[in-house]
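Why does residue order matter? Because the sequence determines the fold. Keep that principle in mind as you read this record.
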Amino acid sequence: MPAGAKLDAFAKAPADAPGIAKATVGRPRRRAVATTVGDRFFRDMVASMRNGVLAVTRDGGVAVINDEAYRIFGLTPDAGDIGRPYADVLRVHPDMVRVIASTFELSHLPNRVELRLKSTGRVIGYTLAHIRDETGEVAGAALFFKDLTRVEQLEERERLRDRLAALGEMAAAMAHELKNPLAGIEAMAGLLRRKVSGSPDAQSILKDIINEAKMANSTVVEMLDYVRPVRLERGRTALGPVLQTAVSMAESKAQRGEVGVEVAIPDDLPPIQGDEHQLCQVFTNLLINAFEALGGAGTVRISTTTGVMEGEHAPQGSLAGETPVHVPTVVIQIADDGPGIPPELTDRVFNAFFTTKAQGSGLGLAIVRKIIDAHDGRIDVTTAPGLGTTFTVTLPVCADEWFQ
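Structure:
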């Protein structure tokens, strides 16, 4: 048969002819296999991403959500979430629900926006994108986001360090000008007190002058301690002896009265990499506050345990890459069963110069937080009126043991 006749016959052959059926069936099969492989690769890619990924359809159903998204949102992974309304899946994050809802109302979407989740306090940086179909119509939206909480903490710490450095220069000059007159007032009042020993009224007035001068000098010293940069003399530190020393020091500086102190420190508590002297100052201040809050009656409980917290990224070159690592920690709790702190004051207890005491400088807890921050740790307070107050200090264990 001539070549032209063969082409005509091929063109006119029925679809179910043996030579044709094989070709027409074979091509769709290859496309189906390719699609399956592509879908699997896409799922693996999204699951392996270091950023959170959430994609929703135009009708509000969840199409894609990876494990990192679950972790950042503090949710438990559930395969049943696919297809569910995103407003239900993210119901504990109404601020995030509003962000996604606005996606379909905007023609130009924001890029690299930061948001603090009110429900968890986490700071996330996110980017939004429209998902369009073959016709160019918006078929859905994608949210790509990253946990910036640790970055925000480090930036805030750096900003605080800069502010304190500037404040420190000013405070040092002021302290120098104040300390000398205060010392002179105290010394002259003491001399005058000896010369009027026969006058009880004058003795009482001079005693008050001396006490006020000492109190003013103490405030100046505390202010200097607060504004100076923390310089740690780090070493392998066992917290058991530090806490025992802090109890003794607190008893010498504040009236304990009938307050009972219960200490529970396990023998296998791991050491930390810290400054023993400054950590002792931290726990002494916390115990003094507890003794003063109890007013001579009640119980202070000191307990320690181990835990983990999300630390900075793993070292460069490690297999973990930029994945946040879980750092082993020691957790110290100092709890009292006193009157507690009013809710409206809880967020201010670590602010400089904030105090509820008649004679307080308001710098004790501010210095405590500064020292804990310098140790890359964290301090939290839990309190309620009538239920007492608990300060929780979290400190990383020795750095050389983190990645063993």
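The CA atoms of residues 259 and 386 lie 17 Å apart.
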